[in-house]
Amino acid sequence: MKTSIATVSVSGDLREKLEAIAAAGFDGIEIFEQDFITYDGSPRDVGNMIRDHGLEISLFQPFRDFEGLPEPLRAKAFDRAERKFDLMQELGTDLLLVCSSCHPQALGGIDRAAADFRELGERAAKRGLRIGYEALAWGRHVNDHRDAWEIVRRADHPAIGLILDSFHTLGRKLSPESIRAIPGDKILFVQMADAPAIEMDLLYWSRHFRNMPGEGDLDVVGFLRAVMAAGYAGPVSLEIFNDHFRGANTRQVAQDGYRSLIALMDDVRRAEPDLALGGLPELPARVKPTGVSFVEFASRGKEAAALGDLLGTLGFARAATHRNKDLTLWQQGEIRIVVNEEKEGHAAHAFNARGTTVCDLGLSVSSAQDTLTRATATGAEAFSQPLEIGELDIPAIRGLGGSVLHFVDSATGLDRVWEVEFDPIPGADTAGAGLTHIDHIAQTMSYEDMLSWTLFYTSIFEVTKSPMVDVIDPDGLVRSQVIESPGGAFRITLNGADTHRTLAGRFLAETFGASVQHLALATTDIFGTAARLAERGFAPLPISANYYDDLTARFDFPPGLLERMKAANVLYDRDEKGEFFQLYSGSFAGGLFFEILQRGSYAGYGAPNAPFRIAAQKRRLRPKGMPAR
Ligand SMILES: O=C(O)c1ccc(O)c(O)c1
Ligand SMILES: [Mg+2]
């Protein structure tokens, strides 16, 4: 299975596109006519430049409004095709994509179209070229792959075949199952695209909202399964028209594309084990995360002391120090927070760039090595630092935003790192204020990066993603999406900020693009924990009295509960499964904060409370006595 991508899918000029596509690992490209025309170089030079990047030209496209035309338009269409054949031969590609006609004068009729294609096939064959016919979802007469196939079948010419595009089939809610019956060698090319489930005009949806397989809501795996089951053996290509991608970082989009394609082909291979799908790298199945092993802050000096004070008021105990490095382990229940004050290495760089920041996350997984193998096979960069004697080699990769993700398992003893590399501090009370484990980690990013991050997690781990929800900040919108493992042992919330004026956007600006903005720590007794935190001098985020007045209007509470929540600045929500309580710390280090929650069987994240929490945080940011802007 060779990989390919249409040049329209990434930003930049043709040379920038090729560099990024080649660096990401693709075997070939579909050259979009527009990208060729806007480039200042002869077709031969362009062909050579593409091959110099180690890429094949899998296809040239699109050729529009060909079939079903009355004379003299018909003759003109053939002349146009001959000009494109010349160009293809100079470029060095043998396959042309013809998309179904949208021409106002195009006539219907399967036999008429088949006759046109037979003649085009004759002309193409003379030059050793091939033609693939694709049904656009909005084609004038042909907008269904089954009709396109019937035309190809009746054209009955060796140089004429079918091109399938997942968007045009799935976007129209057509079942891909009929593809299984098409002879595989008559399918000349396959384009893959996903899209978010939004009701809108098909053409507009396709040209602006397509995204990488796995980033949207279409059943792209079901589609490609049907194609492979038909016996298709050609390249699997991405053709993504997306407004954000057109303006985004070229390399990032190309890398995301490669990641999505490898994960997709692997899903198909697993779903159709009887098919021999050659040429795909062996990679382990998605790995199940079983929790968060540790969160590591880069900090130093006074900032580290302030962070330590805050951790102390939250009930954490200094539990151990590293034998070789300037690392302190703070622990409470199963929660481990490492404070790294090293002057060299990754954490030092993170601190120098951003101040106190979460520089590393340790995830507990079933197999650390499998996680590393799968992550690097899908394009992640392995990360390592020099080890001293007695230190464990914990597999790690670079996450997005420059952070590092470590994978810890018990099978190979990596979870013993605390005993192996650290000296315990005697008498540490790790029961603390009753915080038991990390419920979730909240990562903030610019909205444009959200699809990337979601794909990163969903392609490596066995997790599901929730629908995106809007969180209203007084100064803008933040979009939030949850990634969680089955059973919820591992949960990440991704928050995409549109502007620098939102709390999330401000955090990004102040920290130069850090990612972890808050850690949510679980207790089974929110009021008991709140009381113990108060004893330690913890100052919760004050919540307005109006919030509690509104709560009484929305919910019925047993006597006394509302007063207890109000006194402890506890926020409340409820779903069919249970009740949810949360309270927050103030912010530190450019906008980091902690959340403390009691969830029981409640499945959400308190989204209805987010606007009130954000408003409360913003009130505290404003200097005293300053009116609201
Ligand atoms: O939007 C279009 O016109 C268009 C062109 C070529 C394609 O392969 C396609 O899927 C869509
Ligand atoms: Mg297409």
From TrEMBL:
Taxonomic superkingdom: Bacteria
Gene Ontology molecular function terms on file: 3-dehydroshikimate dehydratase activity; dioxygenase activity; metal ion binding
First-level EC class: lyase
Amino-acid positions noted as binding a divalent metal cation in the UniProt annotation, renumbered to this chain: 134, 165, 191, 239
Pfam family, one: Glyoxalase_5
Listed InterPro entries: 4OHPhenylPyrv_dOase_N, DSD, Glyas_Bleomycin-R_OHBP_Dase, IolE/XylAMocC-like, VOC_core, Xyl_isomerase-like_sf, Xyl_isomerase-like_TIM-brl
GO biological process: 3,4-dihydroxybenzoate biosynthetic process
Reactions catalysed, as given in the entry: 3-dehydroshikimate = 3,4-dihydroxybenzoate + H2O
Family stated for the protein in its record: Belongs to the bacterial two-domain DSD family.
Free-text function comment from the UniProt entry: Catalyzes the conversion of 3-dehydroshikimate to protocatechuate (3,4-dihydroxybenzoate), a common intermediate of quinate and shikimate degradation pathways.
PANTHER family xrefs: HYDROXYPYRUVATE ISOMERASE, XYLOSE ISOMERASE-LIKE TIM BARREL DOMAIN-CONTAINING PROTEIN
Name assigned to this protein: 3-dehydroshikimate dehydratase
Taxonomic source organism: Celeribacter indicus
Organismal lineage: Bacteria, Pseudomonadati, Pseudomonadota, Alphaproteobacteria, Rhodobacterales
